[in-house]
Protein 1
Amino acid sequence: MSFEAHKVVFEQGPADASEFEKLVTSGAIEPDRVAAVIGKTEGNGGVNDFTRILADRAFRDVLRRHGSRDEVAVAAIPMVWSGGTDGVLCPHACVFTRADDKRAGLTVGIAMSDEILPEDIGRTTMVEKVAAAVGSAMADAGISDRSDVHWVQTKTPLLTMEGIRQARVRGRETALPDPHGSMDLSNGTTALGVALGLGEIQRSAIDDYMIGRALDVFSSVASCSSGVELDRAQVVVLGNGGPGGRQRIGHSVMRDALDQDSVYSAVREAGLDLPDRPRAADLEGRVVNVFAKCEADPTARLRGRRQVMLDDSDVHHHRHAKAAVGAVIAAAVGDPAVFVSVAAMHQGPAGGGPVAAIVRLGKPPA
């Protein structure tokens, strides 16, 4: 089965799904065909970012009002919300729907892992649970060749003080003594699970000690987010189910925060022909969305120049990096409504990150 991606903006705030509802009531999106949502909200991107919850509720409410699926089915639709639209980034969602087109192209697979306990975060147990879920999501997408996977979006739990307390009641210690830093660690552990599930790395390359330390070991397609909303890994695999289709996806790897060429490489891999030195106008409105992970380079250098993101005590380096990379990608495609997420441990090379593009083939839209 093929899928289509639809970009939907938040016009009034994270609780406003009116633009989504307009697409549903107009028939552009059939609510019972919505399979997954990946979106950016305007919150702080931290543990207490309530905008993710508001957006999730608003979108599910639209599906409840206009679709025929029951409460359990609507609640089971994976919605991965990433908080923080720093700089020029715009709050938006990418809604994936099942399409009538049987010519393959863009395909989506979803899966949930076994429960991830607080003491699993940052350890190989979590890596293995995520890897198994990635395999299930690939099967759900109808993908047998791992090279056809171009993006794996996940949402996993992070540490809370209550979770740490429960682990100690069970006689277990968590990888960190408090929630600080657990977002990065959960994301990084998950990324290694994606890499293992896709065969990018071997099981022998992973142990508890290297997680969060051996940053040269990474996935080139993992985009991992974490929060307090769930207790297991929610996995959404995006790939191509075969040749053809109205939409296709491709990926590349940003080597650093300025690597605009990698965005065009992802677009080319998705199936668009571009000139040697492309610019946004060459895309002719065919790019549906771009997804990227990024972070401040841990060496505090960028192309030989000293950087101060990691030294700033007023603004967290996550927000610096997101704003900077968001501007680079927005300029590349001529659209500030792109998905850029931070906390990219084990997701692409240190200081860089994976990038993917979904494109629309055929005649450009009017």
Protein 2
Amino acid sequence: MSEQQNTPAAAEQTEQLDENQIMAHRREKLTAIRAKGIAFPNDFKRDAFASDLHQQFEQFDKDALAEKAIPVKVAGRIMLKRHMGKASFATIQDMTGRIQLYINNQGVGEVLHDEFKHWDLGDIVGAEGELMKTNHGELTVRVSALRLLTKSLRPLPDKFHGLADQELKYRQRYVDLITNEQSRKTFIQRSQIIQAIRNVMVDERYLEVETPMMHPIPGGATAKPFITHHNSLDMDLYLRVAPELYLKRLVVGGLERVFEINRNFRNEGMSTRHNPEFTMMEFYEAYANYQRMMEMTEKVIRAAAIAATGSAVVMYNGKEVDLSKPFARMTIVEAIRHFNPHYTEEQLGDEAWLQAEIKKLGGSIPMAQGLGSLQLALFEECAEGQLWQPTFIVDYPVEVSPLARGSDTKPGLTERFELFVVGRELANGYSELNDPEDQAARFKAQVAQLDAGDDEAMHYDADYIRAMEYGLPPTGGCGIGMDRLVMLLTDAQTIRDVILFPQMRME
């Protein structure tokens, strides 16, 4: 082989050639199957799952299992095969796990057994037989009937390494799920987390609802929206950045406790913590304030942790996170001084000093004007990333909280919190602003920021003001980032590992 052929590009070309040859050979097999008129049957009825069989019968020894003569019908993808003359073993994988098949001439006949020897890894089969244990004690199905249900035309990646290329894992999640047990576990845990949260909310008499994903104006969060166009109505629409304003309309209407597990869309940057579309759980409760919302947030997250991991104490990136205890609470200034005791109260009350310090740390000066917004910007630079254990940061400034109720005792601040865990924001909640005139003024201030070039500022929502004028009861609300919560509870280092199909550039 020449030196040029040894280059990585040449190796990749050879690998592709080999895959094309494998696919061509598999297509020939499928053509032969089609000629027999039995390709892709759809009448096999499974009656057992792999993990259930292991749980129910693993404790029986070989003789006890033989006496029971338990019939089963299993189905799954062939992940391993080995042939031993007149007998063969195969391992199939279903949604719950793997189980071994034992195939021989006596059980299925010489003709079918010989056909099976030419089936490929990745093929999907249905098998009927009795449970047995091998001499090594492995639970196995002694097959008496076997069918090829789906012919796999593409070869699976190396069975020991799965998909090594991270980008390929995200693009071809279906292959990643076939070959990577940890990926399957992560998404099973994600489902358990969401189900646990639903259970908590329903137990607290919250009603699950659905609100629009296309809005005539963007609202509910300070974020840049995606824009689309409705041809029949000849109008632009915005994919929702948050469901908040619609959920609070429902509270006005008398649905006093509502929640929605929803997809949001924000036309912003991508990172290990950001995807253009992501999942939030937002909930609103009449006659409640931000203190109650913090209690509910703790309860929901603790339940999710126990459902996914069996414990409220989890490990993330090699360090313990204790979700079992009441979460700490600090103001923005308290958090800054906790991690930076050399800062004085006088400095943190000086706008000019704050601006200089933010620039010194590499941060940017916020568009919103005011002492509070500068303190928040400094907090984000010097304290946020150090909040490892769950901590509520409370009492945010008015200028960065356009939908939160102002504090009755602390001028310039609102009854708002954000929850930080492992240095990341995980939840945002507050006592809702329910004064329609105050809300209208806040919207106008946001429009001024929008006109000044802040493309994340909110629009003026006249219909929401109209709804508030009918009377929004005292209300608390909160949003929890589901993707970041799943990251925390599955020890995932990037958001792409917990979203089945993350956004990617086109191939």
